[in-house]
Specification:
The structure holds three protein chains of three kinds. Chain A is mainly alpha-helical. Chain A contains four helices and no strands. The two termini of chain B are 33 Å apart.
Chain lengths: 107, 490, 482
């Protein structure tokens, strides 16, 4: 069930990226798109009956901490990408005075 | 010796913050050259070691795999590593003038740093044995390349950069999702482990979905038809030296990831059997070759012509892989090497001649044969290599590709390959004719400095050398193919 | 060092010497010397019976198990001496020709001429199909600058089509044929009796033969013959040596070698593949002769005649009778001699008086006595009338046809001979029996420097007629039993 919601988010993000012509909105789409994958990793890390993986008394089943770690890395990558994209957009705006893709295509 | 894999990545990485502090363009350049050269030597040492003693593993932080991240230098990795680092070095030594003339002065040192980071990213992708690490290095190299592309002083550079950013990120996210699905099924991120465990996984829709995601991501990265649109735009608007560098490296990285993921990791579940994926890619590539060659002939702008030519050649490589015989894989690997050398050489020549021109029309090349005879002879050699005439490395790759096609069940594809080879002649010869037979229009202003041409001549000489003595490429490719698909080839 | 390698290295050194000395005035002397020494090597190989040893020299291993390798056999030595001797004569001729026609850039001419002859010699010396293919392509590329030598728009566009025809057919047809042969036979060496002998798929043999005759477009079999008329835009010495002797004969030479030493007569007859060759060759003979009649330009008429004559050779080989193979080899030599006489004399006329068309040739005999006499000799050789050498090769071809019981081919021979006569005879009687129309500018009359080499070739033709038995004995001993 939750996977379906996740995939919906995935598709929404992808759709925004393809459909929108405003560059900022594309970046938003990109973020949604990437976040959906992050959430996917989080989903798969949850183990049934698992507690957070902090060593307390011997319980037995812990949730998987590895995907969380992976996501941290991926979030960092996503931030870098977003900041690079925004920097480029600012420069484009300064140079061409527009951030609509169809107007930019004519250049 | 056992430290070599990590050194190849760490050494340049350590240099990066130092370079950030040194703001002087000259010194950054020199240090960059030095570290590239050292890197190249380390790669050669690694290659020699691996060829004689087998694969080399290095565990980061001494954490045993599959817990820790492991670097794996086997023959496939070393082959690509050698190619990428060599191309980076050649482009660096040829590129100084070009960078100085095209990139804004304040940004030059950042430009070189990004170049170094891109190379680190490529090397990391090749060396890593952890699939998530692959994604991380992929993003490192992609981010650096977005920056590098945006530095061009053409009107469309930044727009091309941001469009490439969007498409590249989509591809990377596809790969990330694919990695996640694989992790769910196998519980490990280590490539060797995944290949061991995947047989036990229940083949379900999600695995097929993961395969599809991987393929889309790789396809975007390698500019497989029909996902090649970004390549044409990017090659047209990047700084000239970057086009030369990327034409030989970034698409080949995509091919490496393809081979690694599909033929090494997922080998046991035969990913290409599902929904006849291999046939689909084969026929897509066939259409791709035809379309891109036709488009190349119709082009009047030189850089776009070469870009379409690159798409066609990548399609050749894919066709050779998709017939899934050891011969085919070997042929594709040979062509990866040869094509990188030739394409980078061609783009370098164009870059050196026309540093700042955005649209290089066919007429701009007229009469260059008289003004710069030696330099243009390198162009002729490289073009003959692209067409695939004997005594050039291109002939060797064509021979092997056709041979592997004829031996497989897809012999009729060789007809298309041969016809498109001939069509390559059509668009390359237009250029050669213009160079030698037309009166020069106004390119007396083109001056070529001696040291710029060294890289080009090295590449042209290599094209001929590898055409005469192909033992290096053929033997290594053969070994890799046999180890991947596990049977004897001729 | 082995004399084959010595010979080839020497020619390459000649190219380098020509390049370094490119600015001296008397560069032609160097060219003549190179061709003379090349002929010396060839005769040396004959005299010292080097071709008997038949050792193979492997030079470079290009693809694992495939080398560039050279050797010399009886068939090769015949072609070797023919082409190098005619090279020498053309070298002497071309000096004055370039000068009188005021061509610039003579160094480029000599360099690429020598390079083309290097490629021709290398093809003759090749001992496997791969080497042949490599030098076949090199020959195409090294003749391209000569075809486009004049540098005007016509030359460039004709040169482009020349290149596309030759490179295109070799990439699309010849290369896959070679790769398929390699996969079937495991080797590409020329061996007496063929290397495909144990292969029994007649369909594949037929396909390979088709790929072959289309792929070796230098043998000018229709429909891929068009490059030859396009190449006529080149200066006359180029048309003479290269497109009457070196290039086209290389093509036919390759077909002979592949038929005899790759496929072998046995398997071709079994699979009936030789019928295909006979078919295409016959069509080419007839169609080219008809087209030649329609040509008014002297060089184009000679070009279409060449296409037809080459197909005589290919037809002769395809019949696979001992006497027809003899005819093929003899015609290789005799056609080369006859055609080169025709082209060189046509060049003398063009240089002397600017005439390029047959219709304008009236009464030239009075102005150009030696030239027209030699041209008539060449024409008679081509038609095949006694007492010329052309008659001898035609005779043996007819014997071969009768021997092979394919009598219907006699019709092809008779019709084509009649057609040949109808387009060659005007070139004989117009100069002699019509009166001269004095509206042309005689800037250079019959320059003896140009005529002398042709006289030598003509004398050789006459001497050969009386000594053909020597050649036949040679062929019988070293190539094929009659």
């Amino acid at each position: 069930m939750i996977f379906i919601l996740n995939m919906t988010l995935f598709l929404i993000g992808l759709f925004i990226m393809i459909r929108e012509t405003n560059l900022i909105k594309k970046v938003i789409g990109l973020n949604i798109f990437q976040s959906s994958v992050f959430i996917f990793y989080l989903i798969i890390s949850k183990v049934e009956d698992g507690i957070p993986p902090i060593l307390t008394t011997i319980h037995g089943v812990y949730s998987n901490p590895l995907p969380h770690v992976l996501i941290l890395t991926a979030i960092v990558v996503s931030i870098a990408t977003t900041s690079l994209a925004l920097a480029l957009i600012i420069k484009i705006k300064k140079k061409y005075n527009t951030i609509e893709e169809d107007e930019l295509d004519e250049i | 010796m056992s430290q070599l894999p990590i050194l190849i990545i760490i050494l340049p990485l350590l240099l990066v913050p130092i370079l950030l502090l040194i703001r002087k363009n000259e010194q950054v350049y020199i240090l960059n050259i030095i570290i590239s050269f050292i890197n190249l030597i380390l790669v050669c040492l690694l290659f020699y070691h691996v060829q004689h003693s087998g694969p080399l593993f290095y565990e980061l932080g001494n954490w045993k795999a599959p817990i820790g991240i492991r670097l794996n230098a086997d023959l496939l990795s070393c082959y690509f590593l050698l190619l990428i680092n060599f191309m980076s070095f050649i482009c660096l030594i040829s590129g100084k003038e070009l960078v100085n003339r095209q990139i804004e002065k304040e940004n030059i040192y950042l430009f070189y740093i990004a170049w170094l980071l891109c190379n680190i990213g490529f090397s990391g992708i090749i060396l890593t044995n952890d699939i998530f690490n692959l994604f991380v290095f992929l993003e490192i190299s992609s981010l650096s390349s977005y920056f590098l592309i945006s530095q061009g002083n053409y009107k469309g550079s930044m727009i091309a950069a941001i469009q490439y950013l969007f498409i590249g990120s989509i591809g990377a996210v596809f790969i990330l999702l694919g990695i996640g699905i694989l992790y769910v099924h196998t519980g490990t991120l280590n490539m060797s482990d995944i290949s061991d465990n995947i047989i036990n996984a229940k083949i379900s829709l999600s695995i097929i979905f993961a395969i599809g995601l991987f393929f889309l991501g790789i396809g975007i990265k390698s500019a497989i038809f029909p996902l090649h649109g970004w390549l044409i735009r990017t090659y047209a608007y990047s700084p000239s030296i970057i086009v030369a560098y990327f034409s030989g490296t970034s698409t080949k990285i995509g091919i490496y990831i393809l081979i690694r993921v599909f033929l090494d990791i997922l080998n046991t579940i035969n990913p290409f059997e599902y929904y006849s994926l291999a046939q689909l890619i084969l026929f897509l590539s066939l259409v791709g070759v035809l379309f891109s060659t036709v488009y190349a002939i119709k082009q009047t702008e030189i850089k776009k012509m070469f870009a379409f030519s690159s798409v066609a050649q990548i399609s050749y490589i894919l066709i050779a892989i998709m017939i899934l015989t050891p011969e085919g894989i070997a042929a594709s690997l040979i062509h990866v090497f040869n094509h990188s050398i030739i394409k980078t050489g061609l783009f370098l020549i164009i870059a050196i001649l026309f540093v700042n021109n955005q649209n290089i029309k066919l007429d701009d090349l007229s009469g260059l044969g008289k003004n710069h005879p030696f330099f243009m002879s390198a162009f002729v050699i490289l073009s003959l290599g692209l067409i695939g005439l004997p005594l050039t490395s291109g002939f060797i790759s064509k021979w092997y590709i056709i041979q592997s096609l004829i031996h497989s069940d897809y012999w009729y594809i060789s007809i298309v390959v041969l016809i498109t080879s001939f069509m390559t002649l059509l668009y390359m010869w237009k250029i050669i004719e213009k160079i030698y037979f037309s009166e020069s229009i106004n390119n007396n202003s083109i001056t070529i400095l001696g040291h710029q041409t060294i890289g080009v001549f090295i590449l042209a000489a290599l094209t001929i050398y590898l055409g005469l003595d192909a033992s290096f490429t053929t033997s290594v490719s053969g070994e890799i193919a046999t180890s991947l698909l596990g049977s004897e080839i001729k | 060092m082995n004399s084959i390698i010595l010979h080839l290295v020497f020619i390459i050194l000649g190219v380098l010497i020509l390049y370094t000395l490119r600015n001296i005035k008397s560069l032609y002397i160097v060219h003549v010397l190179i061709s003379f020494l090349s002929l010396f090597f060839s005769i040396n190989a004959l005299v010292t019976k080097k071709f008997l040893i038949q050792t193979q020299i492997d030079v470079i291993q290009i693809i694992p198990d495939l080398f560039i390798s050279f050797s010399l056999d009886g068939l090769g030595i015949i072609f070797l001496i023919t082409s190098n001797a005619l090279w020498l004569m053309t070298a002497i001729y071309s000096h004055k020709y370039l000068e009188l026609n005021k061509y610039k850039n003579k160094a480029k001419f000599y360099i690429f001429f020598t390079l083309s002859m290097f490629a021709t010699n290398a093809i003759i010396y090749s001992s496997n199909l791969l080497t042949t293919f490599i030098f076949y392509e090199i020959l195409t590329i090294s003749t391209y600058p000569l075809v486009t030598f004049k540098g005007d728009d016509d030359s460039i566009s004709s040169g482009k089509k020349y290149l596309y025809y030759l490179l295109g057919t070799s990439i699309i047809f010849l290369l896959p044929a070679i790769i398929i042969i390699y996969s079937i036979a495991g080797t590409l060496d020329y061996k007496i009796g063929g290397i495909l002998t144990s292969y029994n798929n007649p369909l594949m043999i037929n396909i390979l033969i088709i790929l072959l005759i289309f792929g070796v477009a230098k043998s000018a079999i229709m429909p891929f013959h068009k490059w030859l008329p396009f190449a006529m835009i080149a200066p006359t010495p180029v048309s003479a040596l290269l497109h009457a002797v070196a290039v086209v004969k290389s093509g036919v030479f390759i077909i002979i070698k592949v038929v005899l030493y790759i496929f072998g007569p046995l398997i071709l007859q079994e699979s009936g593949a030789n019928i295909i060759i006979i078919l295409f060759a016959s069509i080419t003979i007839l169609l080219s002769s008809i087209t030649a009649i329609k040509q008014d330009s002297i060089k184009l008429r000679l070009a279409y005649s060449t296409i037809g004559q080459l197909s005589y050779i290919v037809l002769a080989i395809a019949i696979l009778a001992p006497y027809s193979i003899l005819a093929a080899i003899l015609h290789l030599i005799f056609h080369a001699i006859g055609k080169i006489i025709l082209f060189l004399t046509a060049g003398i006329i063009t240089t002397g008086i600017g005439i390029k068309k047959v219709s304008e040739m009236n009464g030239l005999a009075s102005k150009f006595p030696y030239t027209i006499f030699l041209m008539s000799l060449g024409a008679l050789i081509m038609i095949g009338l006694p007492p010329t050498i052309g008659f001898i090769s035609k005779w043996y071809l007819i014997v071969g046809i009768i021997e092979s019981t394919k009598i219907y081919l006699l019709a092809v021979i008779v019709i084509s001979t009649l057609l040949n006569a109808s387009y060659y005879l005007p070139m004989i009687y117009k100069p002699y029996f019509k009166s001269f129309e004095a509206k042309y500018n005689e800037s250079n009359s019959e320059d003896m420097c140009l005529v002398a080499p042709v006289i030598i070739i003509g004398l050789a033709a006459i001497i050969l007629f009386f000594n053909t038995d020597l050649i036949i004995m040679f062929i019988q001993e070293y190539i094929i039993k009659l």
